[in-house]
Amino acid sequence: MTLSLRHLSIAAATVLLSTQLMAEPKRPECIAPASPGGGFDLTCKLAQSALVDAKLLEKPMRVTYMPGGVGAVAYNTVVAQRPKEGGTIVAFSSGSLLNLSQGKFGRFDEKAVKWLAAVGTSYGAIAVRNDSPYKTLGDLVEALKKDPSKVVIGAGGTVGSQDWMQTALIAKAAGINPRDLRYVSLEGGGEIATALLGGHIQVGSTDISDSMPHIESGNMRILAVFSENRLEEPAMAEIPTAREQGYDIVWPVVRGFYLGPKVSDEDYTWWKNAFDKLLASDDFAKLRDQRELFPFAMTGDELDAYVQKEVARYRGLAKEFGLIQ
Amino acid sequence: MDTLTYLAQGFGVAMTPTNLMIALIGTLIGTVVGLLPGLGPINGVALLIPIAFALGLPPESALILLAAVYLGCEYGGRISSILLNIPGEASTLMTTLDGYPLARQGRAGVALSLSAWSSFIGALIATCGMVLFAPLLAKWAIAFGPAEYFVLMVLAIVALAGMAGDKPMKTLVAALLGLFLSTVGIDANSGVYRFTFDSIHVADGIQFVVLVLGLFSVSEILLLLEKTHHGHTVVKTTGRMLFNLNEARRVFFINLRCAVGGFVIGVLPGAGATLASALAYMTEKRIAGPSGQFGKGDIRGLAAPETAIGASCCGAMVPMLTLGVPGSGTTAVMIGALTLYNITPGPLLFQNEPQLVWGLIASLFIANVMLLVLNVPMIKVFTRILAVPNWALVPAIAIITSIGVYAIHATTFDLILMVLVGILGYILRKLDFPLSPLLLGFILGGLMEQNLRRALSISNGALDILWSSGITQAIWMLVVLMLVLPVIRIWRRRQAQRKALLADA
Amino acid sequence: MVFQRVFIAVWLIAGLVLAYIGWDYQAPFSYEPVGPRAFPLLMLGLMCASLVYLLVKPTPLSQEHDEQPMDAPTLRKILVCFLLLLAYALLFEALGFIVSSTLAGMAFARLYGGRWKGSAITSVLLSIGLYILFDRILDVPLPQGLLSGLEI
């Protein structure tokens, strides 16, 4: 007992010492597993500028791009070919976890990497054009109950994507089979906005951040946002949640980073400490707000537990909807 | 009236010495980045955003820099197409068709300057269009739903038939191969992985850069080897570097037509420069008829796609500025840049940030003029590339090509795929299969299939959505026209022959 | 002509195999009547039909290429070049950009008739220059490979 205690204290002392002395990892790099300009790019750029602003890194780390399968290519490359690179963090989102849960990430599962930090979140939302007959989520659900084939729902992804999951959950709430929906898969929030404005679709299953410019201009309305509570930003305070309308649907789109599986504990601790400091600071909160992300701070073991839980939840949903066996 | 005041203000913003300097630097950097195959405006713009932000440039200057880089890249892209027959990106594919033959005839300087001029006119007309009709165009852009896009793709594929020339079957097979290759990867509608053989490297499909650099660059390396082996001499650029008035006059109406067409297509989000340049080329080829030397170094075949590209690049800014929706990959990156400055592009941008929007439009004008002015002394430098002996040129091409491919995913897989595609491309070229229809099929195929299926999801399977709107009907008419035009021409020629015969008798 | 037929035949077989594989693609969820397999199968079908036509009636090769006929030495060189490209692709990451490009550049230069000295100088300058241009200035990260210990 005493021995282990002494061990612990020595370990604690070394950790303390090493965090003081520890140099930043070699060649810090953030892999955005998508083409420039998307959400992953934004996540990397956020960390890039925040780490420099907080003086945690001397020079901005590089942001590199590795598009493919909502993160599948980056995941496989890091796990199989670059597992030891302590300087390389990779951006992920709930979308990556969703694909991971459906076995679309090749032979590796959610335990293959070291989950580092989640830095912010967005929330799913249901949007309609300004002149739509649906005023509340309830109206939409009623309409779906009456005749699901009368409502054209557009979404920013294919079957099994986050946007599809949202519509499937609404279908479930209406007590209809998601197969009976009229679902159109578009590419990303921009296409949803144009299709809604052009009247090609009636309902858009999208993300709150993407829709805000169109809400502010008065062209679009949000029927419900899938957050736990109302969002605090002034422009969004009016938007009702699905929960308060009696539908228990919560769909956060968390954004964060992971490290390769064989990264040394020192490097991992360095990054974790850096992000802990960052996430607690006000400057970071400002940067995060600028990128239309909402607070969501989690690092280390806590994040790992969250990821495992979410992946399990997604897997359950995918089974329930018949996406996987 | 308001518009003019705003535009004057915009020029005020863009004409400050700092911003002029920034535009100059931007166009230069852009040209260099665009020149490197595989790297395009997306890289250039993405690269400069953090720098602009770090330098603390005000948002107008940053956006001016980005617009200048964007136009510079588009300009740089044509240099490798014309001189080396290596299109660095999709849009410059059509430029190779007549640009490279021109360079082979020793008229590289003329080709480069004429393409710069065409693109300048295209951009100029497009910018004017933007000033006058931006709000109206926004309506046009959102009126385009999946059904309209599908019919537009049908038009493009029908136009592709115009490339058939003297070997229709081989063109057809090549185009079909391209159309098929576009289906590799995840199916955007159903989420099914197709022809990936469980490899995550092709989960998103075959990368365009891999395909284009394999087919063109690697196969060109192999063809150069043959030529070296047989002791071919290099083609030197002879005579004048600039096009003359006569040539400018010959393509003037083509410039006008293609500028309008390119702009209108460029405004459509997602359709972009490739479609615009392909349609422009095919249409002009049809119009020219048998009088054209298209594909063998006809200046009209060079001017048409170049004008369309120039116009569509500016057109792509319209959805970004009016709707906050990216009109192309590059504008998507620009939107990201704007959010850094806490400016959300969207329907309110024109109202909330008039200074920025009009400054950008004015700087597009200026960047275009600058490109043209810069270009004249640069042409001599660029055409020197042709004088480099093969033993020094080939290693450079091989290394730069590999970097371009490696830059997408940073994986060895792509490099190997490129080499294998290159061998295939070499054999196809040796056997007279044309490669451009293959690439066009590849680009158009995905858009065509996905939009057809989206349209049918919207209509719940009813086919009439494909011809129920006014826009679809208008495009179908163009399709019919495209098909009928050659028939009419043949019929007319027969008539003329018959008349001649009658007159003789 | 013989080669053309053989090539088309191989292509045709590949097309048929792909069509066979594609036959099974079915979506768990489909919201439209076309589905994921119709388009690729249609394209493959048309392609194979056209290939059969070409197999029966191959188009003679036009001689506009102003080329010499393929002879054994050329073919050997093409093969060497292909292997060289493949080796470069395989070693690109393992050896790192500078080393692999210098070696490959030198080999290419020699293959295309350069002298030893010129080839060596050109390829060294090219690989270092391009490394600086891309990795340092244009921010396209290139693999360091063998030189990763150098802290450059």
TrEMBL record, chain A:
InterPro entries: BUG (IPR005064), Bug_dom1 (IPR042100). This is Putative tricarboxylic transport membrane protein. Pfam families: TctC (PF03401). Keywords: Signal. SUPFAM superfamilies: Periplasmic binding protein-like II (SSF53850). Residues 1-23 form the signal peptide. Belongs to the UPF0065 (bug) family.
From TrEMBL, chain B:
Residues 20-440 form the DUF112 domain. Coiled coil: none annotated. InterPro entries: DUF112_TM (IPR002823). Keywords: Membrane, Transmembrane, Transmembrane helix. It holds the Pfam family TctA. The keyword Calcium does not apply. This is Putative tricarboxylic transport membrane protein.
UniProtKB/TrEMBL annotation, chain C:
Keywords: Membrane, Transmembrane, Transmembrane helix. Signal peptide: none annotated. The keyword Chloroplast does not apply. Residues 8-143 form the DUF1468 domain. The keyword Transmembrane applies. Pfam families: TctB (PF07331). The chain crosses the membrane at residues 38-56, 77-104, 116-134. This is Putative tricarboxylic transport membrane protein.
